[in-house]
Write the structure tokens for this entry.
Amino acid sequence: MNTGPRINDYIRASKVRLIDSEGEFLGIVSLEEAREEAARRGLDLVEVAADARPPVCKILDYGKLRFEERKKKALMKKKQKSLDTKELQFRLKIGDHDYQVKLRQAENFLRQGHRLRVVVRFKGREIGHQNMGVDLVNKILADLSALGKPEAVTKSEGRRMLVVVVPLAKKAGQQEKKPSSSPEKPAPPQVAPEKAGSEKPSPEVSSGGPSSEASPSADAPASKP
């Protein structure tokens, strides 16, 4: 069964208010004239307001219109899916390993845009330790504070305590920082370049070494006057 608007030969009114593809009102014309004008432009005549008197018809590409409508519905469905509420249950005396596993699941749900219902369950005599349940809920909220915030105050329902966490709105251009896989190496120290023409000082001669000038030998004969 076709639930869309009437088009072309399926329009039954004798006269219509005609609008062209640019949105310009062309006047009240007979249905035959409207069909001829649409055919002349190679487009369809679509009844967009059937309850008006006379009904409003627009000249447009009906195939393109249907494509845009399907595209909008798919986008709305995708947004609706992202608003689904996920639920994670925690035992009051949950172990550290199980807690970390559920915490990672909660972080993934919030990153994907889901609302998260956190439930702490009490078994047997644990119901008498409501304060421990409050502490556990506060710990969970603190560990998720970078990704979500509580939608309302924590509620107690029978043997369970629950709170709904909603994802934080991301700021424009904000990206989540990922830890580096390897530590950064410190940059090597920079050495100032030597100036052109500079000379290194010559090593000093030890005082105990031989002199650069030869002293006269004691055994050499003295010169006669």
The longest helix spans residues 62-82. The chain has four helices and nine strands. The radius of gyration is 43 Å. Residues 177-189, 195-225 have pLDDT under 50 and may be disordered.
